[in-house]
Design goal:
Its EC number is 4.1.1.17. By secondary structure, this protein is α/β, with parallel strands linked by helices. 30% of the residues lie in helices and 24% in strands. It has two domains: 90-254, Alanine racemase (TIM Barrel, Alpha-Beta Barrel); 261-376, Lyase, Ornithine Decarboxylase, Chain A, domain 1 (Beta Barrel). The protein has helices at 4-13, 24-37, 53-62, 71-79, 96-104, 115-124, 153-165, 186-202, 228-243, 256-259; strands at residues 19-22, 41-46, 65-68, 87-89, 109-112, 129-133, 141-143, 169-174, 179-181, 210-212, 249-252, 263-273, 282-286, 306-307, 315-321, 330-340, 348-352, 373-376. The strands form three sheets. Strands 1, 12, 13, 14, 15, 16, 17 and 18 form an eight-stranded mixed beta sheet that branches. Strand 3 (65-68), helix 4 and strand 4 (87-89) form a beta-alpha-beta unit. The two termini are 15 Å apart.
Amino acid sequence: MATQRILDFLATRRPDGPCLVVDLDVVRDNFHAFEKALPDSKIFYAVKANPAPEVLRLLAQLGSSFDTASVAEVEMALDAGATPDRISFGNTIKKERDVQRAFALGIRLFAVDCVEEVEKIARVAPGSRVFCRVLTDGAGAEWPLSRKFGCVPAMAVDVLRHAKALGLDAHGVSFHVGSQQCDLRAWDRALGDAKMVFSTLEKEGIVLKMVNMGGGFPTRYLKDVPVAQAYGQAIFSALRKHFGNEIPETIIEPGRGMVGNAGVIKSEVVLISKKADNDNVRWVYLDIGKFGGLAETMDEAIRYPIATPRDGDEVAPCVLAGPTCDSADVLYEKTPYPLPLSLTIGDEVLIEGTGAYTTTYSAVAFNGFEPLRAYVI
């Protein structure tokens, strides 16, 4: 998955220490693939996946809109060239003063999942459009989302009814089927819930206009995943099934699917050891771990492909761990990772598919290890 441009960069620049390299050509190709797969849906890139200014500028130039989780991300999208009408404040948990600040910056589209959030927006962002997030089960996702966000469909009806009563534009509903979602049927279940909210409110004269179908579009790690076109066909079929000929405006929020396969982390083997003379499993320690950007190895949810200079040699399972003085900094132990027996201290390895959710998870220099450096080419 490392492009020739990334390999050439690493060979010529020889950056010291672990680093991420992102190839913008791959990001551009991914954007066009989403455009082709879902031509009638607006793309709102999830800034949290990788907020590198170069990535945001490219996507802004390509015509992308942006899903943001904070005022800082709103400002990043504006700085990248997006106009306020192309930005959604998609976090359902917002300080009232942050809503007020976003409104002052021109943002008029906000996510909610309870009447309390609606009331904040009505106070400081009058007349704004709101969409209510509906809970989904996340079945089929490798990184399922918890019950932290969203409400049951019946409550979503109450929330949007309340928004309308307070003078807000009850604009639509949203859902998220879980990150790295590999089940093409997941959107069908969620769109059924969305249609129920639409139909219930329509009987009261409240006509919703938009369904935000969230993210969840995967990137390839160790297992093959469906291509964007397959998701597009499955989602369009589900829309037709539930909404017939009256398909609402739709939004998608790709994050991982936009940038995941565009990035590669260069890492170095720091130590290879065993815990006993008769131990069959090696421990391989890298100079990057959970706290350096690989937080998504938590519960071994995301298993990254790892390329080594010894590929082709005989392999054996090993426990893979990071360099910090924290016992939680183990990447793969429940399911050991097969790596070449000839792998040795000092070897450089490439951790592929790491363009999403790596730099943003390594913002603190834990144990004095500097945050993950990134290069965008």
